[in-house]
UniProtKB/TrEMBL annotation:
Organism (species): Streptomyces polyasparticus
Homology family: Belongs to the site-specific recombinase resolvase family.
Species lineage: Bacteria, Bacillati, Actinomycetota, Actinomycetes, Kitasatosporales
Keyword vocabulary terms for this entry: Coiled coil
Entry coiled-coil feature ranges: 414-476
SUPFAM superfamilies, per the entry: Resolvase-like (SSF53041)
Protein name per its UniProtKB record: Recombinase family protein
Domain Resolvase/invertase-type recombinase catalytic residue range list: 11-158
UniProt key word Plastid: no
UniProt keyword Translocase, yes or no: no
Length: 545
């Protein structure tokens, strides 16, 4: 009789179910087979069976795996039981990393279908092969979906047919329900002859989206507009209240301008940890015309992009009101506990100036150093120190030397934009010439109608992409301006005027300062204050508080 390597073990059952794949076992089927395995091998299943539904196997961060590894480390179980190794994950590297973490916690990963003892050489080899095959299958599926999404974009459609804010499926569209082999119900839209799968304007949201964009571009506050839209009954696609950030997220996509967006290359940001700085329009370089109807003109869209770009990154959702002149401008440039840049927003507070606790002063600190769990050591800075540094910086901007440096940086941006325009304009002309030639070929009968339509869609998408990139370069060229020195001088002269409202000072500062970065320094030294202007610039030495 073969030895049972799992005899007497306590294992936590873990399942991952894809409800959209017919070949995927249902959560009930997976648990039944795990229960039968446990009975055959004298294994006790511990903990509540809570499978991850529709979670990608290519990454582990959002799934329950780490929770179960912690339970093993705490002595609650001897390992984790899965139906197949592919349910553990489909990323060869992370599969091994997390299995190693489980092993370090004193646990073992057991598979019903690949039940060889992983402590033997044959078992380890089988497991490595299974991981590689699952990873390859995942990459193949990913390539398929990327190709599908690119094909939809080439046809002027978003990557999927789901509703967008301001748009919906047409009333003639029919939802078809399919019961898959694993018992789950898959809902999809049947092919519709009326709309051909192109989203139509949603009368309950579309006009309000266009109104919000127009009024905001014309100078009305985003917070006030969001509140007004809520009071008028406008809700998100999920039926919830929309704050400022939700409104900008909907508008930043450019969908209501009749456009589709994309990226050709991954972007990185020197301060924030995200792969992309944000989903703001300036962080996308692929724009093409979609088949859906536009709610706003391209002129309004370009004006919206210019105003969004003039704002500090990642700060569009902040309140239009603040108690202090620098409210909303301070951001943490220190490293967090993981060693990476923090990028947290600063909060205002009050503390005592000395040990006598007689005089209170206004202080700012990183929110990640104040909130639980604390992930950043923070760098406190006084309001008076920041305002003093800002005033000194403003006074320096009035000098001819500073203005010359700003103009030099702006010139560099304009030159780069001009070089890009020289590169793109011939491409646009060539794409248009190909379109004209294609039409001639059709009229002369050298190509059939189907070939013409297919090639025409490809060339139109290419032409529109170049046109959008040219518009973006022209926008960068226009926006590369230097600050108005007279306006800065007026702000400096009125800085100590008691009649100058905080809101006016805030608006004036935000027009010339993109952000104020606070750097942590060794104990005993004041925090370092770095002021980043709103115009193109060469990084300057920061000041100490």
């Amino acid at each position: 009789m073969l030895e049972n390597p799992y005899d007497g073990m306590r294992l936590i059952p873990y399942g991952r179910v894809s409800q959209l794949h017919e070949d995927s076992e249902s959560d009930a089927d997976q648990f039944d087979k795990m229960a039968a395995f446990a009975e055959r091998h004298n294994v006790t299943l511990v903990g509540k069976y809570e499978p991850d539904l529709d979670m990608s196997g290519t990454e582990f961060s959002k799934r329950k795996v780490r929770k179960y590894i912690s339970a093993v480390a705490d002595g609650e179980a001897d390992g984790i039981l899965v139906m197949r190794l592919s349910r553990w994950g489909r990323n060869d590297t992370e599969n091994r990393v997390y299995e190693k973490e489980l092993s370090s916690a004193g646990g073992i990963l057991v598979s019903v279908m690949e039940s060889e003892d992983p402590n033997t050489r044959a078992g380890r080899l089988r497991r490595k092969m299974a991981y590689l095959l699952d990873s390859e299958e995942s990459e193949t599926r990913g390539d398929y979906w990327r190709d599908t999404h690119e094909k939809r974009r080439a046809n002027g459609r978003p990557h999927n047919g789901s509703a967008r804010f301001g748009y919906m499926r047409c009333p003639e569209c029919i939802v078809v329900e399919e019961t898959l082999k694993n018992g789950s119900v898959h809902r999809r839209y049947a092919k519709c002859k009326a709309c051909k799968g192109i989203l139509v304007v949603d009368p309950a949201r579309g006009p309000y989206a266009a109104e919000f964009m127009k009024r905001w571009v014309n100078g009305e506050g985003a917070s006030a507009l969001a509140l007004e839209m809520y009071e008028r009954g406008v809700r998100s696609l999920a039926g919830k209240k929309m704050g400022v950030s939700q409104w900008f997220a909907a508008l930043d996509s450019g969908f209501i301008a009749g456009l589709l967006r994309g990226r050709t290359l991954p972007l990185k940001h020197p301060l924030y940890k995200k792969r992309y700085p944000s989903n703001r329009p300036e962080h996308y370089d692929r724009w093409q015309k979609g088949e859906h109807a536009a709610l706003v003109s391209l002129e309004l869209w370009e004006a919206y992009k210019r105003k969004r770009r003039s704002q500090s990154p990642e700060k569009a959702s902040r309140s239009d009101k603040g108690k202090y002149s620098v409210s909303g401008l301070l951001w943490c440039a220190s490293n967090d506990k993981s060693g990476g840049p923090c990028g947290g927003k600063y909060k205002a507070g009050t503390t005592y100036s000395d040990s006598t606790r007689t005089e209170k002063v206004k202080m700012f600190n990183c929110r990640h150093a104040l909130d639980a769990p604390k992930t950043c050591a923070g760098a406190q800075v006084r309001l008076t120190s920041v305002e003093s540094a800002v005033l000194q910086w403003l006074e320096e901007q009035r000098t001819g030397e500073t203005a010359a440096l700003a103009e030099e940086a702006a010139t560099e941006v304009r030159d780069t934009a001009e070089a890009r325009l020289k590169e793109l304009r011939p491409r646009l002309e060539k794409a248009q010439a190909k379109l004209d030639n294609l039409l001639d070929l059709k009229l002369e009968g050298e190509i059939d109608g189907a070939t013409y339509e297919r090639k025409q869609k490809e060339l139109v998408a290419q032409r529109d992409m170049y046109a959008a990139q040219i518009a973006d370069a022209e926008d960068r060229h226009r926006s590369a301006s230097t600050p108005h020195m007279e306006a800065i001088g007026n702000l400096v002269d009125r800085w100590h005027d008691p009649k100058m409202k905080v809101s006016v000072k805030q608006a004036s500062l935000r027009s010339v300062i993109r952000e104020i970065r606070i750097h942590r320094t060794p104990r005993g030294y004041p925090s370092r204050i770095e002021i980043v202007p709103s115009w193109p610039h060469q990084p300057a030495e920061s000041q100490e508080a």
